Amino acid sequence: MNYIPFEDYKRKWIFTHQSMPVAEEDRAEIKPMSEDRGAQAWRDFVSKQSPTPDHFGKGDWAIMSSVWEIEDNWMNPWEEEADLPESVTAFFNMEDNGVVYFCYDKNNVIETRWGTFKKYWKNFLFYDDKPLLISKKKKEVAMFEQSGVVKLGKRP
Fold first, then answer.
1. Could you give the CA distance from residue 85 to residue 72 in angstroms, rounded to a whole number?
2. Is the pLDDT of residue 128 over 90?
3. Residues 79, 81: Cα–Cα separation, whole Å
């Protein structure tokens, strides 16, 4: 099984919170991966050795300064109830139906569509301890730091 039912997702509250609920018809586009499938996606796209962003080390592309091209602030737009920062939307430059992975850690990866992420980006960022937004078919990646900085780059 590649996905777990939305209702069984341990962090589903970030998408059902009364202050920012995701429309029920849009929840079908938020697909929490099973631990096995999430771990495989993490190995394929993020790291073969580190289970969380806090454990990135030698050999992980995410700590290489050469990967990151742009830094911007995501926290102010999040707090001001604004759209996803233009720097992120321009950098990814994808069709709304493009598949992206939002990776919190090895065992917590969500597959969604670019349009769904843009619409509900604040929900995804309730947990902001360096999650990665990864394009499935492109090399674009974003890392959201707790400091409010988003780093944009391309995976090697």
1. 8
2. no
3. 5
